[in-house]
Write a structure and sequence with these properties.
Elements (H helix, E strand, L loop, with lengths): L1 H4 L11 H15 L7 H9 L6 H18 L9 H16 L1
Helix pairs in contact: 2-3, 2-4, 3-4
Length: 97
């Protein structure tokens, strides 16, 4: 955790922004002190709630789901996994052309 705090997000570039944000949300959620309101995890998870890359969106939604569970609420998000799988296959096929 201490090493993570030493990283300057501004120096990461665009490719590492999402993984950095995920780790920040993860650490806030899993390493927070008792009584914490998980402010960082909540903000970042909501920021990526509609993120177009399904793998990242699901990771953030998992954190958000756990936060809502802690709050006594349910996150009722349905994801059409078959549709997302087709999109991935079409994307991979278009890259090979």
């Amino acid at each position: 955790m201490e090493l993570f705090k030493q990283i300057e997000p501004a120096n990461l570039g665009d490719k590492l922004k999402v993984p950095y944000d995920y780790m920040a949300a993860y650490f806030d959620f899993y390493c927070a002190q008792q009584g914490s309101d998980f402010k960082i995890a909540r903000e970042l998870s909501k920021k990526y709630e509609e993120y177009p890359v399904m793998e990242w969106r699901l990771l953030f939604l998992d954190i958000l789901d756990q936060l809502y569970e802690l709050d006594g609420e349910d996150l009722d998000v349905e994801i059409d996994r078959e549709n997302e799988q087709r999109k991935k296959q079409n994307y991979k096929a278009s890259i090979k052309k």
